[in-house]
């Protein structure tokens, strides 16, 4: 059984173990950014599918972004309009981002602040985590703590009491938009319509 009380769960995440927790979209499979390669291995994920850096606040995430003057104001405005929420911003990465987060394009990073009290509470204590949906690559996202424990028995989860009631419909992933130097390009249409 890999369900842990929250203090033990936070300790496991901080120590570099693979963890899963609920977000405002699908549950996350997460690890410290320097341990991102574990996520690719667990999911059997191809390196051309980068991970998302999730944080409890924008202030936790901006240090991972290469800031370019006026562009930063536009990025921060988009974040202010939609965060916390189901919008991932793909921006130029600074050298603080481990290459394992985005093996084929290490000069960019997707960042997001989820609109979930549980996720924010966890991320506040762990710091930003490398995340993606919890499932084997190409399979539907797992949405219950029971399914996660069954399919990923080595991944730590918080106690089931911290998880929301399962939805009757398949939850949508976050919308992903990328800054192309001039404006925003939609890479994946999800919950938020851009």
Automatic annotation (TrEMBL):
The Gene Ontology biological process annotation of the record reads:
regulation of translational fidelity; tRNA processing
Q: Where in the cell is it found?
A: Cytoplasm
Any one of the GO CC terms: cytoplasm
UniProt key word Iron: no
**Annotated EC:** 2.7.7.87
Q: Give the catalytic activity.
A: L-threonine + hydrogencarbonate + ATP = L-threonylcarbamoyladenylate + diphosphate + H2O
Report the GO molecular function annotations.
ATP binding; double-stranded RNA binding; L-threonylcarbamoyladenylate synthase; tRNA binding
Domain YrdC-like as annotated: residue spans: 3-192
- Report the family membership: Belongs to the SUA5 family.
- What protein does this entry describe? L-threonylcarbamoyladenylate synthase
């Amino acid at each position: 059984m890999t369900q842990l009380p929250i203090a033990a769960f936070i300790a496991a995440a901080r120590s570099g173990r693979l963890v899963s927790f609920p977000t405002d979209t699908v549950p996350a499979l997460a690890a410290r950014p320097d341990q991102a390669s574990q996520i690719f291995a667990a999911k059997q994920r191809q390196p051309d599918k980068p991970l998302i850096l999730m944080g409890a606040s924008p202030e936790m995430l901006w240090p991972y972004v290469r800031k370019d003057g006026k562009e930063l104001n536009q990025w921060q405005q988009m974040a202010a309009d939609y965060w916390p929420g189901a919008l991932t911003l793909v921006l130029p990465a600074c050298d603080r981002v481990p290459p394992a987060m985005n093996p084929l394009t290490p000069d960019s990073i997707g960042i997001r602040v989820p609109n979930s009290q549980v996720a924010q509470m966890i991320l506040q204590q762990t710091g930003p985590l490398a995340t993606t949906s919890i499932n084997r690559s190409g399979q539907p996202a797992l949405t219950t703590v029971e399914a996660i424990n069954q399919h990923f028995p080595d991944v730590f989860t918080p106690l089931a009491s911290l998880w929301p009631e399962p939805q009757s419909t398949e939850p949508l992933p976050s919308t992903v938009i990328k800054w192309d130097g001039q404006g925003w390009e939609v890479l994946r249409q999800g919950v938020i319509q851009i």
